[in-house]
Amino acid sequence: MLHRRQLALAVLAACVGTTLQAQEAVRDDGTTITWEGAIASGRLVRTDNVNGEVRIVAGLHDRVVLKGTRIVRRGDGTLVRAEVVRRSDGGVTVCVLWPGQRCDEHGTRGSSRERSWRDLQVTMNLVLEVPAGAPIHAETVNGRVVVTQATASVKAESVNGDVEID
User: Fold this and answer.
1) Which of 81, 101, 139, 145 is most buried, most CB within 10 Å of its CB?
2) Could you tell me which of 154, 77, 88 has the C-alpha nearest to residue 123?
3) Which among 89, 148, 163, 79 is positioned nearest to 118, based on CA atoms?
4) Cα 136 to Cα 158: distance, rounded to the nearest angstrom
5) At 106, is the secondary structure helix, strand, or coil?
6) Which residue from 66, 70, 76, 50 is spatially nearest to 145, judged by alpha carbons?
7) From its phi and psi, is residue 42 left (phi > 0), alpha (psi between -120 and 50) or beta?
8) Would you tell me how many other CB atoms lie within 10 Å of the CB of residue 69?
9) DSSP conformation class of 3
10) Nearest by Cα to 54 from 109, 95, 99, 92
11) For strand 54-58 and strand 145-147, is the pairing parallel, antiparallel, or unpaired?
12) Contact criterion met (CB below 8 Å) for 138 and 127
């Protein structure tokens, strides 16, 4: 009986450890967010934002570099945060999350009808440097998407903002 319990705990710990490894630590000082990490050549870089601009530029190395700026007009801006998730295909997904949301390799999940959203006026503008050859999928709901010097496929979407690709 004891061995079964130990085995079950070991399996649970392994599963939790695997899940935690997929999410990357983002530095956040309350106004600026930063993250940097290497990705394999040709792997997807995806961004998913709600309120703010997404700007993607060509990087000079094999790393994705994220710099974000949080602008708080009302409410507790720390409730809106960024997460970076390692994708199973070797790429990364960057999500800007509001209360009640989570990030996985496919983007933001969860309800956008969380009551606490009503008291928040927060914009998160993102700039990502991506390696040459990385496909890009960039989305925002309210803001511009700008992609410059892309060397692979680009999918860029905004519900309420311009999309510029050059």
Assistant:
1) 145
2) 77
3) 79
4) 14
5) coil
6) 50
7) left
8) 14
9) H
10) 95
11) parallel
12) no
Which pTM was predicted? 0.83
pLDDT tens, the chain, 166 aa long: 444 444 443 443 444 433 333 678 899 999 999 999 999 889 999 999 999 999 999 998 999 999 999 999 999 999 999 999 999 999 999 999 999 899 999 999 987 665 566 789 999 999 999 999 999 999 999 999 999 999 999 999 999 999 999 9
Residues 2 and 153: their CA atoms lie apart, in Å, by: 54
Q: Which residue has tokens 């997460």?
A: 83
Of 132, 76, 139, the residue nearest 103 (C-alpha): 139
Distance, CA of 137 to CA of 23 (rounded, Å): 19
In the numeric block, the tokens 């999940």 are attached to 109
Q: Work out the angle at residue 83's Cα, subtended by the Cα atoms of residues 87 and 118, and round it to the nearest 5 degrees.
A: 130
Q: Give the contacts of 8 (CB within 8 A, at least 6 positions apart).
A: none
Q: DSSP letters along 7-31, please?
A: HHHHHHHHHHHHHHHHEEP-EE-SS
For the record, the structure tokens of 112 come out as 């956008």
Q: How far apart are CA 119 and CA 114, in angstroms?
A: 10
Q: Which amino acid is at 92?
A: V
